[in-house]
Amino acid sequence: MNYLRLIFFFCLISLSQLSQAQFQVSEEEVNTQKVFIDATKEKLLGNYENAATLFKEVLKRDKTNHAAAYELARIYDFLDVKDKALQSIKMAIALSPDNQWYQMFLGGLYEDAGKQKDAAKLYTELLKEYPRDAFYYEKLAYVHVKAQNPEKAIKVLDDMEKNFGVHEDISTRKHRIYLGMGNKKKAANELENLIRYAPSNIDYYHMLAGFHEQMGDIEEAKAVYQRILEVDPADVKSSIALAGSTKGNSNDISYLNELKPLFEKDDVNIDLKIKELYPYIDQVANGAASPELTITTIELAELLEATHPREAKSYAALGDLLYYSGDKPGALRKYQKAININKSIFPVWEQVMYIHLEQQNFEELLTVSEDALDRFPNQAMGYYFNGLALGRNAKHRDAVNSLHQALLMSRKNPALQIDIHNHLATEYFQLEQFDKAYQSFDKALKINPNDPMVLNRYSYFLAAKGDDLEKAKSMSALSNELAPNQPRFQDTYGWILYRMKEYKAAKEWINKAISNGGDQLPEVLEHYGDVLFQLKDTEEAISYWQKALEKGSTAPNLEKKITDRKLYE
Which helix (H) or strand (E) element contains residue 16? Predict the structure, then answer.
């Protein structure tokens, strides 16, 4: 009841047609209000198609209802139907031309559609009407930059500065624009301008020093750090920067050793330490660090942990280093400590879920993903991991629901969408909804026709179902061409050939899979045994079935095949 009252209250304040002084309304108006309330309820429940239908019904009943037109525009925008969103918001503006929110929404749609000139025209008009609104200056400058008119953007920001005075946001925007124009001198001048405006603000000096470092002007950066120490002799960040004379000179280990005394001080800000550590974590992550540099970086991260034992960041940093240096169990322990201290950092949860996935700990993955979803209901990756865990715990219908939610929330991530469609197809197969499975594969291939993982799995399921072995063979061949020497892909191709009774060719391909690491995969070993059996090499077939069993295979009938010395499909 409370929920419905809230919806009703929201609708009452949204319906601008209702006058507070008007207590008697016609039956038609009451019915229109009821449809608006129902539409809003559907929108809040996420039933956007239903909500759109109801808002259109409101407009059919009341052609002056600008609130309904606005809500319809928002729904069309969410559903990525941009032309209808534009049409609806323009209707709302025509009915209520003085509504700033409608104008701002239209500007956002213009920006999303790449219509920067239209957006610039709109924001220019709004600035004329609201010359003291800083937001419109910022938006106008932004769309000028997007339209590749940086000079116009600078002019807007100059006007903004005249109206509001020197401000960090304005100067840094101008700095970035000048930098994009390739004018390093004016970019630096904007930061110097901030220093002149607030000569005691150390942050502005650091911005200038960081800019010179970014440009490779090391001597200029050092000069700024010296200026900082003149203002604040206790500035640790400048001391670290000036101490790093060996940094970048093929002596990273010496530089990190120089930092150890600073890392041992608990009064030095942890963020400064992590900033120095991060480039080396990145090297370890990318495989660019030598074993010696990796060890030294880990030692420094351990110092960080010892000095800041109540900071989640210290455990997360060490967890990253252990993860990328190959110690997944150690990394998991550090990430879990980080979460125990601070449960609000989703990337740490994400790393924990990745490790459980890599280690095939699907029960733990299910538990962690459910906890993550309770805390982060708007994270697509939480639903993604939850879907994978549910599927591997034989909860296929629930897996489909979670994966669909992940799909809705990952529209701007094509790679993730491909992976989700791929896993959705697997779940549909488990539910014997084969048409939906093939549709999911087709949607993935529409995004990328040459995704080897999708092609491999698609071909495997086609062969398993026996629907189109020639198509399966063609897809599998392409997946092996795109990603050669993948044992699972080679095994799939061999198994398809097996299904086509081309046993000699199947043996050749599955043997390739075994040579490339497939000897650790129980399904590959079992397939090889099946091929050998068809080639009348019974004793060798049984030995490979036994190896598959020893590697942990749970395939039905495998033990029976060994005992009865015969094939069972």
Answer: none
Instruction: Report how many domains make up the chain.
Output: 1
Residue 501 maps to a domain: yes
**Neighbouring C-beta atoms of residue 142, cutoff 10 Å:** 18
Q: pLDDT tens, 167-186?
A: 999 999 999 999 999 999 99
Does the global pTM surpass 0.70?
Answer: no
Give the CATH number for residue 508: 1.25.40.10
Smallest CA-to-CA distance from 496 within 514, 484, 509 is with 509
Q: What is the pLDDT of residues 412-432, one digit of tens each?
A: 899 999 999 999 999 999 999
SS3 241: helix
383 and 403 in contact (C-beta within 8 Å)? yes
Contacts 24+ apart (CB under 8 A), 460-466: 460/492, 460/495, 460/496, 461/425, 461/426, 461/429, 461/437, 463/492, 463/495, 463/496, 463/499, 464/429, 465/434, 466/499
Q: What is the pLDDT of residue 178?
A: 94
- Residue 491 in tokens: 């095994």
Q: What does the alpha-carbon distance between residue 93 and residue 24 come to, in Å, rounded to a whole number?
A: 28
- Which residue in 83, 61, 53 sits closest to 71, CA to CA? 53
C-alpha to C-alpha distance for 519 and 408, rounded to whole angstroms: 39
Give, in order, the Cα–Cα distances in Å from 54 to each of 8, 64, 410, 516.
15, 15, 27, 59
Task: Give yes or no for a contact between 436 and 428, defined as CB atoms under 8 angstroms apart.
Answer: yes
DSSP 397-427: HHHHHHHHHHHHT-TT-HHHHHHHHHHHHHH
pLDDT score recorded for residue 517: 95
Q: What is the residue-wise DSSP string for 42-60? A: HHHTT-HHHHHHHHHHHHH
What amino acid is encoded at 162 in this protein? K
463 in a structural domain? yes
Spell out the alpha helix ranges (H) of 249-290.
252-263, 270-285
The per-residue pLDDT for range 442-481, each reduced to its tens digit, is 999 999 999 999 999 999 999 998 888 999 999 999 999 9
> How far apart are alpha carbons 298 and 528 in whole angstroms?
43
User: Which phi-psi region, left, alpha or beta, contains residue 46 (left: φ > 0; alpha: ψ -120 to 50)?
Assistant: left
- What CA–CA distances, in Å, run from 237 to 70, 224, 328? 50, 12, 32
Q: Do 268 and 236 touch, CB atoms closer than 8 A?
A: yes
In a domain, 567, yes or no: yes
The three-point CA angle 203-209-214 to 5° equals: 125
Confirm whether 469 is domain-assigned: yes
> How large is the angle between the packed helices 522-534 and 538-550, nearest 10 degrees?
170
Is residue 453 within 8 A of residue 421, CB to CB? The reply is: no
Query: Which range has the worst mean pLDDT, 172-176, 243-247, 521-525?
Result: 243-247
Q: What are phi and psi of 326, to 5 degrees?
A: 105, -5
Which range marks the domain in which residue 470 is found? 450-569
Question: What's the start-to-end Cα distance of the chain, in Å?
Answer: 57
